[in-house]
């Protein structure tokens, strides 16, 4: 039984909100049941805004595989293309991988600013495996099948190295702890873009395969790469947008578009080679400085 004060307040509340009661009665039963089910969900299964961006990353990776298949591989198998990689479809696939990099860049930023669900880390790893492991490796496989001087089995072996490198890298990232602000090994989005850039450079087959395997090795190496935060995140986003512009110019046959694409791909490869050199040099200098300090320090009593 309710005491008089409680009954009075309950009566006043019901009298003051007849519209709420009527709207609740007007709603279908399945809507009310669905709302109850959502409210009963554990916090670990509720998606956040960052998770939605991560799922966008996965969608872009899958669509990159789709366009590589329908626009490049299928026309080659049916004999309806003029040989080589189809410009439009290849550019679309690479653009989708770049867009996946944008989603991957922003989901971490949003997760730090807002909240991230308990599934965030797992969703991120699975999405990265699709967009930066499967999609670029499949791009390499198709290139090995359609290029005139390529060998399908060798390119497939190089693609396997890329997938394994991304799998091992993501697994290591999940179970190890490193100092804040750096990645251990080349980040998978950067590695995927470098692999694709190597293919787009249209180098001879053997140097291309060697470069792809080298990128795969860098992804599982212990070379430290800075995390894209602050100004570096802005620079990374700007570089992604410039790369999309280069792909668009190449696709639309803009005068100088092919040279622009080659320049962008070459700069990506140069950055992939230079950053490990700087990181290794800095690490060696730090170790030498620590040794000097240890030698100059007075002996402990």
TrEMBL record:
One GO MF term attached to the UniProt entry: CDP-diacylglycerol-serine O-phosphatidyltransferase activity
Listed name of the protein: CDP-diacylglycerol--serine O-phosphatidyltransferase
Gene3D superfamilies, A to Z: 1.20.120.1760
Intracellular or extracellular location(s): Endomembrane system; Membrane
Alphabetical GO biological process terms: phospholipid biosynthetic process
Pfam families, per database record: CDP-OH_P_transf
InterPro entries attached to this UniProt entry: CDP-diaglyc--ser_O-PTrfase (IPR004533), CDP-OH_P_trans (IPR000462), CDP-OH_PTrfase_TM_dom (IPR043130), CDP_ALCOHOL_P_TRANSF_CS (IPR048254)
